[in-house]
Amino acid sequence: MRAAVLLETGQDTLEVVEDAEPAGFGPGKVRVRMRATGLCHSDLSAMGGVLPQPAPFVPGHEGAGEVLEVGEGVTHVAPGDRVLVCWLPACNNCPACRRGQRHLCLAGFMNAGTPNFRRTGGDLFGFAGTGTFAEEVVLDAPCAVPVPDDVPFDIAALIGCGVTTGLGAAFNTARVEAGSSVAVIGCGGVGISVVQGARACGAARIVAVDPVAARREAALRFGATEAVAPDGLAAAKRELTGDEGFDYVFEVVGRSATARTAYETTRRGGTLCVVGAGAMDDQLQFNMFELFFDEKRILPSLYGGGDVLHSYDRAIALWRAGRIDLEGLITHRVPLDRVNDAIEQMRTGEALRTTITF
């Protein structure tokens, strides 16, 4: 089968190979034919070495497809079922799961170092234990989550990561209150999902911040009340909040500089929600007095927080009700052999989400 492969960490482009095959099928596994997968910024971060991932590997973790085969002991899905890929499955048995924090379960991360594919010359890993930039993939059974027949594959793929991450940050982690003021720094697919989540929570003012004009314009269509370039954020803070700061500020970039800006843009007693995934050596500095005196809540949000299965259901319900727009998030569609076009579209900010269709 065909798969897009990063041969060495640090390379800018992928190689589409035709001699890959999924590996590891057996008890507790599910073999899935991919139908659609989204390009998430985390894929680029793994390619560049910002996020740890052994190479060579098949990127992609935001996908959906149909079940081809199930291994012994798998009962929740059957051949022919439509599924989305959950890149962070819960084991339901560890201390985090027993506390109700299933999104903090480490079981999925334990599989990231096990090859998911093989080809002539050796094994290939799958990003985050998945690797959806391939025509087929073998997953641990909890990674294959059934979706209703009325949910298109490309919409299901987005719910598998970006949409759930953004909506969940607003609903689960920050718990945005009705009538509040919100700023969202970084308005790609995840940031726009934060905007939509804040709107669904009833926020009165939502300021979208992004250096790309097209993304600012898109944010207004998705529910932002104002949109500014980064150099206009300070003025927006003065004009809209009397320079007090916003009730909630979401950092959806994954850099210490923007996180510091987000902190300074949050009002005293407000909430800074860190959604972007950054590098281990990118240090963010606070002094002890401001942490005490400003009493700002700093809340990291991994995969949107909360129970991801519930988050999937909520996203589908909001989409069905017309409360969120998921079709509009997909600005580009490409076949697998044009995967490098998708990478360039994300790097330049041209796309909100590019989906690869099979």
Summary, kept brief:
With 358 residues, the chain is α/β, with parallel strands linked by helices. It has 12 helices and 19 strands.
What layout of secondary structure does this protein have?
Layout: E1 3-5, E2 15-17, E3 21-22, E4 29-38, H1 41-48, E5 57-58, E6 62-70, E7 82-85, H2 95-98, H3 107-110, E8 117-119, E9 122-126, E10 136-140, E11 144-146, H4 153-159, H5 162-174, E12 181-185, H6 189-201, E13 205-209, H7 213-221, E14 226-228, H8 233-241, E15 246-251, H9 256-265, E16 266-274, H10 288-294, E17 297-300, H11 308-320, E18 330-335, H12 339-348, E19 353-357
Parallel strand pairs: 5-9, 12-13, 12-15, 13-14, 15-16, 16-17, 18-19
Antiparallel strand pairs: 1-2, 3-8, 4-6, 4-10, 4-19, 6-7, 7-11, 8-9
Helix and strand composition category: alpha/beta
**Whole-Å distance between the termini?**
12 Å
Binned strand content:
25-35%
The backbone outline, from C-alpha atoms, is: globular
Helix content: 25-40%
Radius of gyration: 20 Å
Characterize the main sheet. Answer: 7 strands, mixed
Q: What is the count of β-strands?
A: 19
Average pLDDT confidence is 94
pLDDT < 50 runs, ≥5 residues: none
Helix tally? 12
What are the defining features of this structure?
single chain, 358 residues, alpha/beta, seven-stranded mixed β-sheet, six-stranded parallel β-sheet, 19 strands, 30% helix, globular
